[in-house]
Amino acid sequence: MDFFETIMFPFKWLVSAIMVGFHDGLSFIGLPAASGWTWTLSIIGLVLVIRAALIPVFVRQIKAQRGMQLLQPDLKKLQDKYKGKTDQLSRQAMAQEQMALYKKHGTNPFSACLPMLIQMPFFFALFQVLSGITSAKDKGQGIGAMSHDQVVQFDQSSIFGAPLNATLLHGGGGEHQVTVVVLTIVMILAMTASQFITQKQIMAKNMSEEALASPFMRQQKMMLYILPIVFGVGGINFPIGVLIYWTTTNLWTMGQQFFVIRRMPTPGSPAAKALAERRAAKGLPALPILGGKREEAEVAPAVVQPKGQRVQPQRKNRKKK
Q1: Would you call 177 exposed, middle or buried from its count of C-beta atoms within 10 A (0-12, 13-18, 19+)?
Q2: Dist CA 162 CA 2 (whole Å)
Q3: For residue 226, is it within any domain?
Q4: 238 within some domain
Q5: What pTM was computed for the model?
Q6: In the beta sheet, which residues pair with residue 290?
Q7: Tens-place pLDDT, residues 125-142
Q8: Using one digit for the tens of pLDDT, what is the confidence trace for 6-31?
Q9: Is 55 part of any domain?
Q10: Does residue 159 lie in a domain region?
Q11: How many independent structural domains does the chain possess?
Q12: What is the extent of the structural domain holding 126?
């Protein structure tokens, strides 16, 4: 076992164990154990478990992204300060001041990629599990937490006649080839479209004017076009089961971003203005940003005082003795 295999072994075991757990549960409630749809639902269950576990990381990502957008004016001033200075001392001073800004706002440019980076080992583990199904079957072995009988069962399972471990380049030949090609192309299009739509809605609705005019915007535009291309091109080598996984996780991300943009938008963004208008129309108080966090505005009822009488300050939550 080489170094990479050693690192990936626990991820492969965990991924396969979650799939087997869902498969056994679905079989217990009456779904056919040998059905490709049962294994497909097991893969979707794997996505739900991983993405649910990543919710705290996603919350940190949102805070980091907001921090990056809020510090854009300061970054612009810093860049103007050192504009035209290319000597080593100036570059070092600029880097130090930039790191100080990141620390002050509690963010960094790499925080936005954290959920994806955490998911990658599980993605590669699933890829290795599904890609190794046929080899494990021929050798009479299991793979990860899957027994040999389950490996054989998965190898023979299919949806719409396409084996779950088939790829566009290795479709299994014969009568399955056309089905594999069509299903793979549809899945690749769904995967890349959901990736594009998610990033597009962030840029169109959830970025302030300062962020749109900042260098941070260039990074977002690169992600908008590069990531769908990378996954689209790489998709021709992905087994159908992996495409199901990645399409499902992209749909989760798209729905999650839609919820965040609608309910917890970035201050100063079009989505924040739309939320303020919706709340105003319902007669609800505004949601100011205090200390980087959204807090419900506390609006005390207005008390009409007699003319000339001084309004006495009142302390909230006064305890009775």
Answers
A1: middle
A2: 32
A3: yes
A4: yes
A5: 0.76
A6: 293
A7: 998 898 888 888 888 888
A8: 888 899 999 999 999 999 999 999 99
A9: yes
A10: yes
A11: 1
A12: 3-71+107-272
The owner of tokens 């959920």 is: 115
Integer Cα distance of 259 and 253 in angstroms: 10
SS (H, E, C) the chain: CCHHHHHHHHHHHHHHHHHHHHHHHHHHCCCCCCCHHHHHHHHHHHHHHHHHHCHHHHHHHHHHHHHHHHCHHHHHHHHHHCCCCCCHHHHHHHHHHHHHHHHHHCCCCCHHHHHHHHHHHHHHHHHHHHHCHHHHHHCCCCECCECHHHHHHHHCCEECCEECCCCCCCCCCCCHHHHHHHHHHHHHHHHHHHHHHHHHHHHHHCCCHHHHCCCHHHHHHHHHHHHHHHHHHHHHHCCHHHHHHHHHHHHHHHHHHHHHHHHCCCCCCHHHHHHHHHHHHCCCCCCCEECCEECCCCCCCCCCCCCCCCCCCCCCCCCCC
